[in-house]
Amino acid sequence: MAFQDFRDFLDALRKHGELIDIDRPVAPHLEVAKALRKSAAIGGPACLFKNNGTRFPQVAGVYNSRAKALIALEATEETVVDRILTGLAKRIPPVMVKDVPGWQAYDFPELRKRGAA
């Protein structure tokens, strides 16, 4: 069964020992990168930084290993190819919307200058 939301996916990572919660204060621009570099170097878990100086938790490293990708796909080494091929054969059509509240917050004028937006 597909994950209902990102929290469900994080719970699955946690259940498989692929996510650790870090409650101590961390600097998002210094310590987060250091922790992720160390975790990736040893094939370690993703990190959820709960006390990063913002109102929101920060999660990183959720797809930086094959094991985590298999959890995301809800597959094993034996079933991953079939899982991907089945997903490609049963694509979910996009939902078009006319107006997205808050879209202006994601406007990047510097990209418009280069013709990318």
Mind explaining what this structure looks like?
It contains five helices and three strands; from the N terminus they run αβαββααα. It is of the alpha+beta class and 117 residues long. A three-stranded mixed sheet has the order 1-2-3.
What is the secondary structure topology, with strand pairs?
Blueprint: H1 6-15, E1 19-22, H2 31-41, E2 46-49, E3 58-60, H3 66-73, H4 80-89, H5 109-112
Parallel strand pairs: 1-2
Antiparallel strand pairs: 2-3
Global geometry:
globular
Pattern of helices and strands: HEHEEHHH
- Distance separating the two termini: 36 Å
Low-confidence stretches at least 5 residues in length (pLDDT < 50)?
Answer: none
Biggest sheet architecture: 3 strands, mixed
Q: What's the pLDDT, averaged over the residues?
A: 85
Figure out the total of helices. Answer: 5
User: Rg from C-alpha positions?
Assistant: 18 Å
Structural class from helices and strands?
A: alpha+beta
How large a portion of the residues is in β-strands, by DSSP E?
5-15%
Give the strand line-up of the largest sheet. Answer: 1-2-3
Count of beta strands = 3
Helix fraction, binned, reads 25-40%
